[in-house]
Specification:
Layout (H helix, E strand, L loop, with lengths): L4 E5 L25 H12 L6 E5 L7 H13 L4 E6 L7 H13 L4 E5 L11 H13 L2 E8 L8 H13 L5 E6 L5 H6 L27 E4 L4 E5 L2 E5 L5 H6 L7 H8 L24 H12 L2
Parallel strand pairs: 1-2, 1-7, 2-3, 3-4, 4-5, 5-6
Antiparallel strand pairs: 7-8, 8-9
Helix pairs in contact: 1-2, 2-3, 3-4
Length: 304
């Protein structure tokens, strides 16, 4: 495994319940990673390789600021050059508190933050909150970017992307970069936005995670969930770090030893249909937006 990046889902809990959420996070979710587990995962990983980057996200990680700070401190002690966080900026409600928190985050080694702003977050988070959070981070010396999700593009004419474009115009005075990515058809995005999503071919092998371009045959990134599950793609686990040392999960990884991953690499998600034989599942091609959608849905339906 050519691992360069380690990610933690600190929690599945979020103050929002955005209709596009690929993680299906919400205020009702309760999972949260223990600091001792996070420290252990970092130590295990760094015992077998050097990381280029580390990220914490959720849910909303700043619902547990003390845990996040303790985890960033450990990552900094491990000499990881890039230490990132993804947040919705809800903690920017009060300017004075935001500046104090930003300074503390900087002091423990956090050096880059993506703040999610778009039409999907706005119903839950007043725009002043992420704006205040961004300004506080910049004041503390932390690099900040807007993390923006679109259906098609910033210039598209659908109502969500048009609203997102207006939001970004309002935020231009902050003076930071915008990183734009398209919705992945998993989680609530399929339930709520299916009519906007463009259908793509379901045929052919799967190259891996569509956001990070993580290659299943030689992943350079893994994500550890609060449960300990170690994912190389959306809910595609290669082990549990609470049951087996993460150092061994990393060093012993061979995609050929995972029947599910072997099928995805060699045949693609359509190859998973063999697992549905003898079940109540019935494949209907028109139901699926793309290979990612088919892969995640069939794995849920037949529990593979």
């Amino acid at each position: 495994m050519n691992l360069k990046r380690l990610e933690f889902t600190l929690t599945t809990r979020c103050n929002s319940q955005c209709i596009h959420c690929q993680a299906d996070a919400s205020p009702r979710k309760k999972e949260v990673m223990e600091v001792k587990d996070a420290h252990n995962y970092l130590a295990e990983t760094l015992s077998v390789l050097s990381l280029e980057s580390f990220m914490v996200f959720g849910g909303e990680p700043m619902l547990y600021p003390d845990r996040a700070i303790a985890i960033f401190q450990k990552a900094s002690e491990g000499k990881i050059p890039k230490i990132d966080m993804l947040t919705n900026g809800v903690w920017g409600k009060n300017v004075e508190n935001a500046e104090k928190l930003a300074a503390e985050l900087k002091s423990v080694g956090l050096n880059r933050v993506g703040i999610s702003v778009d039409a999907f977050h706005l119903p839950y988070i007043a725009l002043d909150y992420p704006r205040n959070a961004a300004l506080a981070l910049l004041k503390a010396g932390v690099d900040v970017v807007w993390n923006v999700t679109v259906i098609e593009s910033i210039d598209a004419t659908n109502k969500f992307d048009k609203k997102t474009s207006r939001i970004l115009t309002m935020l231009e005075p902050v003076g930071i970069e915008t990183h734009v990515h398209k919705i992945i058809p998993v989680g609530r995005s399929v339930q709520n936005l299916r009519q906007y999503l463009q259908h793509e071919s379901l045929e052919g092998p799967c190259s891996g995670d569509p956001v990070l371009k993580n290659i299943l045959t030689n992943p350079d990134s893994i994500c550890v969930e609060p449960s300990g599950e170690v994912d190389v793609c959306w809910n595609l686990a290669i082990g549990n770090a609470k049951e087996k040392p993460l150092s061994r999960i990393i060093s012993e990884y061979d995609w050929r030893k995972f029947p599910l991953i072997k099928i995805l690499v060699e045949e693609g998600p359509m190859g998973l249909l063999k697992f549905a034989e003898g079940t109540l599942y019935r494949f209907q091609k028109e139901r699926y937006v793309n290979k990612c959608h088919l892969c995640t849905e069939i794995r849920k339906a037949v529990r593979v």
